[in-house]
Amino acid sequence: MLSHVHDWRRENPAPDPFACFGKGISVSSRLREVGKPLQKDGENQAIQVAVEKFVNDLLNCVGRLESRFISTVIPSGSFYEGTKITAPNEFDFMAEIQVLSFRGACTLHWHSAFPGRPLVKVHPFLAATLFPDLVSGSAKSISSSSFGNAFEKTLQNALGMVILPPCFESSIRIGQKGPSITLVLTWRGQKYKNLDISIDITPAIKFFHWPQWTDMSATAPSVRKLRGLSASRESYYKLLKEQVTKLGFHVVPVSPLWRGSFSVAEMHILRTFRSESNRLTCYRCAKYFRDHHRGDKKVLSSYILKTAFLFELERYPEDEFWTSEELFPRLHGMMNRLQSESKEELLGSYFVSSFAINEKWEAIIPYAIQRILEDLNLLMLLGPEARCCHQEYM
Ligand SMILES: [Zn+2]
Q: Is CB count within 10 Å lower at the N or C end of the chain?
């Protein structure tokens, strides 16, 4: 059963021995301080405006060079979720490929051996007219690697034609990360002098019908089960079932198969909460403690933290669990549960729990989480004076 992890998570809120501590004012105010949101004014806003203009110009140019890659730009990721900390140095955009995102343009073929990783079949007319070079086999499925490469090549050509605004240094570094093309620009600013800003652009195809086999379809409680739940719990499940699943999802090219992406749905959930809310503060705190340890960012990716956080929101939908006093128990409990799941090798994505989210580093994830828990405990014991106790990892 695909949903076993999701069920397991919901039904086994592991008791957290530290949860009753750390409710003091000094701990919660310190957490509110380190997890405060990025201000969206001044130079932060100037960076946002410049980055968005650049990305729009660039993707317009991509569409002029190759009409099959005309796209709709969708901001996604931590900056837009209100979960970025420190500096506005990372931006994510999806380039939703218009001609492939019409209803009926593509169909997906899922195989249980590859959870979350479909084959994409394109309508025969489109295959013959616009994508003959990218379609392989008699199945008329569109090759994710050829598609990704063709898009990247067009983007590289467009980069040579777009004028970079003077607020950036003239050179651009380009790299590839999973399904994304990463551009690194250097900001010429006052507050952020020579700040490297990385911009991830991911080509994506939209699908309107939420897949039947995700955990959300399988396990969000039915109306019958909703009876007797608190009003906030009921409304949270309704948000998931009635709003989030209506948003559709995307597939993005990773080699050798495509991958389902639910980032629009995830963003919708996170944006239900104000960026100063204790809920988002809790998530930003997890990132803050993780970022203390050089190298842990790739082991314990923001995506893993986001997944754990989405579960925490689902487990505790009531506001009474998210007062300032509860900030420490929530953060501690969330990291604790994440640690036990990673030890059991149960780290799946939120909507598709059978889809492993970080196989490469799986074995060392529990240690990265342990470092966060230790720093958190230190904060609880010492209050605002606490600093990281892992000099060798800083
Ligand atoms: Zn530390």
A: N
Q: Are residues 82 and 199 in the same domain?
A: yes
Ligand 1 centroid distance, CA of 170 (Å) = 37
Q: 10-residue block means of pLDDT along the chain (394 residues)?
A: 56 59 75 89 93 97 98 94 90 97 93 86 93 83 94 96 92 91 95 94 95 67 62 84 89 91 93 94 95 88 92 90 92 91 80 75 88 90 80 76
Same-domain status, 30 and 77: no
Total count of domains within the chain:
2
Q: Kindly give the distance from the C-alpha atom of residue 371 to the centroid of ligand 1, in angstroms, as a whole number.
A: 5
Q: How far is the CA of 373 from the centre of ligand 1 (A)?
A: 9
Q: Are residues 21 and 55 in the same domain?
A: no
Note the pTM of the prediction, 2 decimals.
0.89
262-to-155, 231, 330 alpha-carbon distances in Å: 24, 26, 24
Does residue 43 sit in the same domain as residue 171? yes
Report the candidate in 347, 351, 357 with the shortest Cα–Cα distance to residue 247.
351
Domain membership of residue 337 (yes or no) is yes
Alpha helices in 35-160 (DSSP H): 42-65, 78-81, 98-101, 124-129, 144-159
Whole-number Å distance between alpha carbons of 256 and 217: 27
What residue numbers bound the domain in which 294 lies? Answer: 1-36+276-394
If you measure from the C-alpha of residue 202 to the centroid of ligand 1, how many angstroms do you get, rounded to a whole number? Answer: 33
As a whole number of angstroms, the distance between CA 120 and CA 118 comes to 6
Q: What is the CA(215)–ligand 1 centre distance, in A?
A: 34
**84 in the same domain as 180:** yes
Q: How far is the CA of 31 from the centre of ligand 1 (A)?
A: 15
Calculate how far, in angstroms, residue 366's C-alpha sits from the geometric centre of ligand 1. 14
Structural domain ending residue among the three candidates 184, 209, 234: 209
